[in-house]
Amino acid sequence: xxxxxxxxxxxxxxxxxxxxxxxxxxxxxxxxxxxxxxxxxxxxxxxxxxxxxxxxxxxxxxxxxxxxxxxxxxxxxxxxxxxxxxxxxxxxxxxxxxxxxxxxxxxxxxxxxxxxxxxxxxxxxxxxxxxxxxxxxxxxxxxxxxxxxxxxxxxxxxxxxxxxxxxxxxxxxxxxxxxxxxxxxxxxxxxxxxxxxxxxxxx
Length: 203
Prior knowledge:
Elements: H1 2-12, H2 23-48, H3 53-84, H4 91-120, H5 126-152, H6 162-183, H7 197-201
Helix pairs in contact: 1-4, 2-3, 2-4, 3-4, 3-6, 4-5
């Protein structure tokens, strides 16, 4: 497990998947990344709801659910676009980069979780701001890691990856927004994200 954790860290910092590894082994690495991401998400959810134990305990499954189902929603459309666009590379490598980006984003959330819990117990203003800020930073990290990793994983015809990468990101973020609405409340406070897309477009 530690070896896979270190391998995923290498992928997150820009190393390309092992071209000599079989597709099944690469997919196993992607699955391990998602499983670890679920644990990181649960840790953050526990911290974000720590001012209320019922909220904290419910977040142990709510946050991992959002992470998992938003990823699963993005994969079919992303892979179909990759195939139709005639993009280079192996689909297993693209999936590994996608899973590694989710791993990296949720790892950021887990690292910031103690700080989120601390401020929720000591500041009524800074707690919610830090919780939302940590998720925004995690999303920026995840998107950046995926874009960098996807384009580094191929050596030619990189322009053909633009559309598949965009579809992966758009479907992931779009489904995540609505899953957050379905799972709300995740934070003790009411946020604009609790209503999903309606909360963002409503005046």
